[in-house]
Design goal:
Length: about 130
């Protein structure tokens, strides 16, 4: 399944009222391992995991960024280290993508792919982390 289709499925689930959403998600089958929806669910349900904002979910899907469990763990580790240094808004650079993360909220705010990174200006960040 393509990332765009998975993002649409995730977005349609996100449109449910919050009380129905949690019960609906628990009643549906788990998505296949390795899919965007599977990784998204793991990231969002992990105790110390990251959350992806709706905007970040859209950008990851639109820009075809390979978001897998390894990347989710790397971002989570980066956020832990950034938090220990007092970071608030951070740019996390990966060889294939860049992520703006709200460190206190543990939320990926947006994502850019490699083609968008050159000649880009990142404002309103206080920290940077290179994976």
């Amino acid at each position: 399944m393509q990332v765009q289709e998975l993002a649409q499925r995730v977005s349609s689930a996100a449109g449910l009222p919050s009380t129905a959403r949690s019960s609906e998600i628990s009643r549906t089958h788990d998505p296949p391992e390795g899919t965007f929806a599977h990784v998204l669910r793991q990231v969002q349900t992990a105790g110390e995991g990251l959350r992806l904002s709706a905007h970040a979910q859209q950008r990851i899907a639109q820009r075809h960024i390979a978001f897998d469990e390894l990347l989710a763990r790397q971002l989570s580790q980066a956020v832990q280290e950034l938090a220990s240094k007092g970071a608030r808004e951070a740019l996390v650079l990966h060889p294939e993508a860049a992520f703006i993360i709200s460190v206190p909220n543990r939320t990926v705010v947006t994502a850019l792919d490699r083609q968008e990174m050159p000649q880009r200006i990142f404002t309103q960040i206080d920290s940077a982390y290179i994976l």
